[in-house]
């Protein structure tokens, strides 16, 4: 997992892979006031962008998840979201696997989970080995707007 914002992008980008810099640069270039909620293809590598406004829920009501085929980038447009994070290990047992097209595996609980807060302008990058619990309330249930960039591992 990687957390950042674009305030120090000029120096931080040199620490990242070329492909990650490319997709984060794309995300940075968007003016989200002019982007409606929806799903948008990005280029020809199978990358796609989801822009979504949604309610958050109490942490305990949301399930940790991970994706095998995609790197999952969460960018907070407005509101504050709590996200659980843990590294995958053999003690975490999946409870539901959504078909490969959706690429979601859900867990009831995970060991050594930490909670992070994502504020407007910040992003979190979750690799396939990262379990994450998105859409959790940070300060009571409230609406957030965020962008999710799905980058195929093969890209």
TrEMBL record:
<protein>
    <submittedName>
        <fullName>YhcH/YjgK/YiaL family protein</fullName>
    </submittedName>
</protein>
<dbReference type="InterPro" id="IPR004375">
    <property type="entry name" value="NanQ/TabA/YiaL"/>
</dbReference>
<dbReference type="InterPro" id="IPR037012">
    <property type="entry name" value="NanQ/TabA/YiaL_sf"/>
</dbReference>
<dbReference type="Pfam" id="PF04074">
    <property type="entry name" value="DUF386"/>
</dbReference>
């Amino acid at each position: 997992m990687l957390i950042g914002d674009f305030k120090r992008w000029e120096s931080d980008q040199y620490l990242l892979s070329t492909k990650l810099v490319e997709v984060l640069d794309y995300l940075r270039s968007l003016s989200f006031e002019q982007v409606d909620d929806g799903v948008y293809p990005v280029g020809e590598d199978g990358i796609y962008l989801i822009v979504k406004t949604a309610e958050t829920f109490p942490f305990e009501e949301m399930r940790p998840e991970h994706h095998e085929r995609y790197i999952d980038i969460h960018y907070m447009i407005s509101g504050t979201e709590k996200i659980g994070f843990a590294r995958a290990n053999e003690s975490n047992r999946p409870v539901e696997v959504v078909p490969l097209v959706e690429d979601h595996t859900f867990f009831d609980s995970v060991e050594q989970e930490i909670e992070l807060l994502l504020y407007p302008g910040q992003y979190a990058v979750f690799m396939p080995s990262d379990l994450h619990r998105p859409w959790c309330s940070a300060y009571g249930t409230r609406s957030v707007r965020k962008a999710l960039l799905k980058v195929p591992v093969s890209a």
